[in-house]
Amino acid sequence: MSFAIETVGLTHYYSKGTISQVAAIENVNLQINKGELVGIIGHTGSGKSTLISHFNGLLKPDSGKILVDGVDIWKDKETLKNSRFKVGLCFQYPEYQLFEETVYKDIAFGPKNMKLSEGEIRERVLRAAEFTGVKAEHLNKSPFDLSGGEKRRVAIAGVMSMQPEVLIFDEPAAGLDPRGRADLINLIKNYRNQTGSTVIIVSHSMEDIAEMADRVIVMNKSSVAMQGSVDEVYSRGDELREMGLNVPEITEIFAKLRAKGIDVPANVYTVEQGAEILRNLMERRSVK
Amino acid sequence: MSEKIIEFENVTYIYETEDEDAPVAGFPALTDVNLTINKGEFVAVLGHNGSGKSTLAKLCNAILEPTKGTVTVKGIVPDTEEKADEVRRIVGMVFQNPDNQIVATIVEDDVAFGPENLGIEPSEIRRRVDDALKCVNMYEFRHREPHKLSGGQKQRVAIAGVIAMQTECIVLDEPTAMLDPKGREEVMNTVRRLNKEMGITVVTVTHFMDEAVQADRVVIMDGGRVVMQGTPKEVFSNVEKLRSYGLDVPQSTELCHVLGIKEGVLDVDECVDEIVRVMGGAL
Predict the structure, then answer these.
(1) Is residue A271 part of a domain?
(2) C-beta atoms of B255 and A262 within 8 A
(3) Handedness of CA A65, A71, A75, A79 (dihedral sign)
(4) For B76, which of A12, A228, B22, B61 is 20 to 30 Å away at the CA?
(5) In chain B, how many domains are there?
(6) Residue A179 to residue B48, Cβ atoms within 8 A
């Protein structure tokens, strides 16, 4: 079976051919399995946005290959065009990219480009709107009359309505308040569970990634620095800190408890998980 | 007694026009708000989206004018254009999006923009721009193009622009919302230093609880009203109440709360100490 996305020696330079030429990504070899929810983390400038812009052909590699479902997307024009429908990209602050007169038209923009029938477009728009919690009475409104949080849901619905095989979110929760953030994380998890699609989340929030991802890829200095399960990656706190990333506060608490000789595991990423462990430990100690 | 710098008295604000930030026209964004900011204070304003916190920020330097009630800045009520200008010389503002507030193509020109508009002597402007850029650790970037800077660096340039106006108070509206962890830290360290070392009054609107923990006072907004205020310790001792306002608490606070160990724990070290204490020390 082929991978949802595979990169082979993927390299991209900025300001190529000038003295200020820098590698944005260099020799990146990655495999993303079908149906996987992968988190990509890295500080600003680590190359993660450049990397995902290759996944649907927005950027062309200077060397190396990008395969979607086993096919090199730069093979010919047709394949490249299809890759844009297969791999949906939801940018950072997608609400700034709304442009149509109505919410309906904005969500319908992608399916329309796919040359689907009116009936099919309508069905997809309604389904995506319902899934993302865009209210039916908002569909005929101008997107600019909505609140920031509502606009973001419209933008996400616009990508989901294309029903891509791979859906990529770049910093989906940026700028949201805690409730909005929790809602969005649930939305993404539900989307993956219901559709079985491959989902890639780019973020610098280690908390958000820990809550969602099956596997984590860490980018640093234009290359893949680490990859593995949340446990495998988050247990390397010192290395992550050197890369300008912070482990979740709860993980730091548990590292410090261990340093003080308290017998707790290192792989704790959520407060619920941590509370459970400490409760058991306290009970055992009081029994003694 | 501490000296007041900004005072809100029974302030109500209703968006009437099609302002791009107006959530719902005709609906009060703020209702009957009373709030005093003292000179030299570091105040964090928290609240979920739509709670009225950005509206509150914009009323501080006369970008908005109250529908009812008064906002007084050092005794000045900005009810004329001249008085509004005077208020803006006392209270400077930094916004969320670093790309929307840069006006020049060279960093030092951008910082000089404010003082130039005040009609200040060129030699004095030079001195202020240099001082301001040193203050935010961006002096070595003075000849650079702002669009090539990182988000955190751009925000620090925006802050330098405010300092160069020699304002006594800075109001920041979610200054770190669009930044990565490193950028956030750079900006918050800068803001804290301005407050502690230069005595500049700081009002920061934020979603990040760890930023609020560093403030002298935390103000919680909900539904256009001030619903809670106090020291971070006092405010974060009410985990359930904060949740009901759609807010989180730092994970250290939450852990000690759910374990029933202690309320109002603010950082990792305090949390670790409390856990070790109830465990009766390490094994």
Answers:
(1) yes
(2) no
(3) negative
(4) B22
(5) 1
(6) yes
